[in-house]
Structures are given as structure tokens and as C-alpha cells.
Amino acid sequence: MTDLAPPVRDEAVSRFVERFASLLTDAGMPRMAARVMMALMVTESGALTAAELAERLQVSPAAVSGAVRYLTRVHLAVREREPGSRRDVFRVRDDEWQDAITNRGQMLKLWEQGMNEGIVAVGGDGQAAQRLAVAMEYYAYLRKELADMRERWQDHLAGVRDGKIDPLSDGPHAQILREGPAER
């Protein structure tokens, strides 16, 4: 893959940020939070000030403020203070994706307990109880699978961090990185 001239690369990066933010929005994330998160993801440092975010996304500081408040509340970004500076820097966490997906075990456990209460409430037999029991079983299944998946991911990530796996050349997308994305 050849290096693109900065304006072309900037345009491609901006399009990517907007497209992926749209996917996150479709999945339920607030639009501005999705845009801010993706703007942070594509910076080399993974960190920007609120003013830098507002400038890059061409939005108001108030919009950035609400977005970073959301992202920090759901643990997808952290607020840090640069040494010797009065400005806050917002940084994406390296493990945000894995946590966003695999840390649903507690929520699933609460849903399981809720379904169990529902089974008791409807009398423990009949179609309603059956539906609730199937949902409860599904949540239990998902919780176990997510725990197993997180463990496998941790093993894989250790290989990445140890240099045994290079996601830019060994991963499933390595061909795309070498040849560029296929035309749509």
C-alpha cells in the first residue's frame, strides 16, 4: 500500500470515521459519541483535547463535552491531564472493544435472574414459563460463551503484545492492507 498525500489521506480518514461512527450509531451508540470515539481511534496517540476534537469533527465544544462524558461513563474513553498542562486530554482505551463486548456477563446474569423471577411469577408451567425459561437458558449460554471468548481473546492478545502475532501482517485483513480495499 502506498502512502497517500496528506489531503487525500485526511479525506479518507474522515470518511472512515463517519462511516464507522454510523455503524456504531446504528448499534445504539449516540451519534456524537460514536464520532468522537472514532476520531480518537484514528489518531496515532489515541488522544486529543476537546478543542482538537471539535476542530476535527467540525462541531461545537458543547457537542464534544456531551460525547466525552458519555464515553467516559461507559468506560470507552478516559480523561487525563497532560503533565504541566491545564487541558484535559481524552484517550481511547486499548482494550475498549473487548470490554464493550465481553463485559456483558454481569448484565446477562441479572437478566437470567430476572427471567427466573418471571418464571416464578407466572407459576412455573405453561407457555409463558417456557418462553421465560428459554430466554433464561439463552442468557446463561451467552454468559458462558462470552467468558470463554474473553479467555481465548486474552491468549490471542498476549501473542499480539509479545510480537508473536502481527495483526497488520498476520491477521485476516492483511491482504486488504497490502492490496487496498476492494471497490464497492
TrEMBL record:
Residue ranges annotated for the HTH marR-type domain, each copy included: 28-87
Domain of life of the source: Bacteria
Renumbered residue ranges of the record's region Disordered: 161-184
Molecular function GO labels: DNA binding; DNA-binding transcription factor activity
Record keywords, A-Z: DNA-binding, Transcription, Transcription regulation
Pfam families: MarR_2
Annotated PANTHER family: HTH-TYPE TRANSCRIPTIONAL REGULATOR MJ1563-RELATED, HTH-TYPE TRANSCRIPTIONAL REGULATOR MMPR5
Protein name as catalogued: MarR family transcriptional regulator
Organism: Actinomadura barringtoniae
